């Protein structure tokens, strides 16, 4: 019975982390690859995949060794002091909120397209519905969300199999080989790929599901990261093999005319599933951050995490690629620097670890500088 429970918890934890990682960035990758080139994106996945996995392993060790319910701001306050705890609060909220906003933007777009405008000719009703359903699930707690992630993973796997089968007659290798990319777009994938591989916000919730067993904790992280990368490359190959340079920024927009209306609706359903499951997990993480680390009333926290994205959406911030690129390059990079700094106070360091940590910090800082240079 104990072994069954451990395996069941492992699967739930694996589903939560994998579902968190595979989110809205999933749909931007074919478009980014078409502009930067598949070899360039492959290098980014190898490099940033290793960095993100190490960050998750570091964070898991910190979380496992620290008693109490804490997110990044609370742990920064404990190990780095009150001042850095306040800074970490701002960046953690920014990264989570930006990611949640991106999920709302694309999820509502998919929902609106799937229903052909039912429920209103504009997308705003779909935005409200998306956030309202999310708030209800957050109110229900961790268990139902873990179960939702499992259902979402199963549905995603089935749809990917069906996508491979349906697209096989329309997939041409020359469409992929013709994508050489441009030198000027070499840095374009950085923020998007980092965003697509990031799942640190779910680590504390995974500890609640898994307990403090380090061996199984680490296995969840490694298998989730490898699964995400494999799924991403499968999706990139399928979409670019069908669309080539004509790929839509959200990957799905241009496929309806090629694969048919039925396939288009299945793909939109996949979009809703993957964005919504990640949206729920990150909304839960932000909700608990506000409650546990800021001492906010649970009702007020729920209102803010559900209502905040709607306000920004209605203010016109609705370019999901721009949002995830900024969040990945700036906010997640700063979160990564905090995680590494906290881990240095908790974990054991060898010479190789010091080299890896130094490389990560330099990479994050250069990315932040580049993003602000690009904006200015």
How do the helices and strands line up, and which of them pair or pack?
Elements: H1 2-21, H2 25-36, H3 38-65, H4 72-80, H5 82-114, H6 124-140, H7 142-167, H8 173-177, H9 189-197, H10 203-210, H11 214-243, H12 256-259, H13 261-293, H14 298-314, H15 320-346, H16 351-375
Task: Give the key terms.
mainly alpha, Amino acid/polyamine transporter I, 16 helices, globular, 376 residues
* CATH arch. level architecture: Up-down Bundle
Question: What is the typical, i.e. mean, pLDDT?
Answer: 81
Q: Which parts are unreliable, with pLDDT below 50 for 5 consecutive residues or more?
A: none
Percent of sequence in beta strands: under 5%
Describe the structure in your own words.
This protein is mostly helical. The chain has one domain: Amino acid/polyamine transporter I (Up-down Bundle), CATH 1.20.1740. The chain contains 16 helices and no strands. The radius of gyration is 20 Å and the shape is globular.
